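Example (one chain per record):
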Amino acid sequence: MYLLLHSIFNKMLENISLEILNVTESAAIASFKEFGLCNEQKADKEAVDAIRKSFKNIGICGTIVIGEGERDNAPMLYVGEKVGNQKGGKYDIALDPLEGTSLLANGKPNALSVLAISEKGGLLKAPDTYMQKVVIGLDNPRIVDLDESIVINLQNLAKAKKTSVKSLTVCILNRPRHYPIIESIKTLGSKISLIDEGDILGGISTSKYFNTGIDMYVGIGGAPEGVLTAAAIRCIGGFMQGRLLFQNSDEKNKAKKLNIQNLNRKYNLQEIVSKDLIFLATGVTDSFMLKGIKKNTQTSIIDSIIMYSKTKKIQKITTCISNK
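Predicted structure:
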């Protein structure tokens, strides 16, 4: 019976994938109006408003498990909010209406709108805190480990890839907290790809599918972004580990309210995303994964991607809409 219901849910997910894609497309179009205008708050609000409006007529009973924050602090797309017309299957939803808000506001590449939808209970309900992460493109849990040093992890990855440590490239957020890791990588002679923002794309860049030349993503970033990264990796292949990091007792209490009892737990990919899902993203500005919105006086051309964990199918979609 479980396998039958599981199959039905997957089929239902596939059937509504294009409707769900309209959600990220709408957010991308709305936020793009703020491209280069240096107003991060307005850009994010445009994306959030567009997503909420787009969900209204979709035939699902959706629950936001990764969103814009808690109900008291986020009037739209808060964790626990119900979306869809509440007449279809029950799904959990993780989203980032505008990943790379400051990138878009400052006219830079790598901004996108991201969403993952799974069977109910399929996504880790991570609080809005930090997460320590390591991601590689190889689908092997024995190569890297959060409890090992970056030196050991790179040596093991080089061995698995049958190459030298000096030929590896590590992507990492350019933050002071990562300077010791960066120094260790430099000592080994591995290459470094520093990014200012874009935690989700950083993890996805390790995928062999996109052929970016990035071998590992490592460091501390947002926990919500970690769940969305894991959703993509589950679809396109690779391995990821994550561990929640808490700055104070308030964050720990929020985690416990989400039924996270072991605050030091090291999560593997299958524990962050435990059920089949669909990952969707729409480009707002150019990235290795998606072209940004191209706009003229009459039309806007939008580039999107849909990834399916069950079939490993990757679907690229280009949409042309009228600006009228």
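Caption: The first helix runs from residue 2 to 32.
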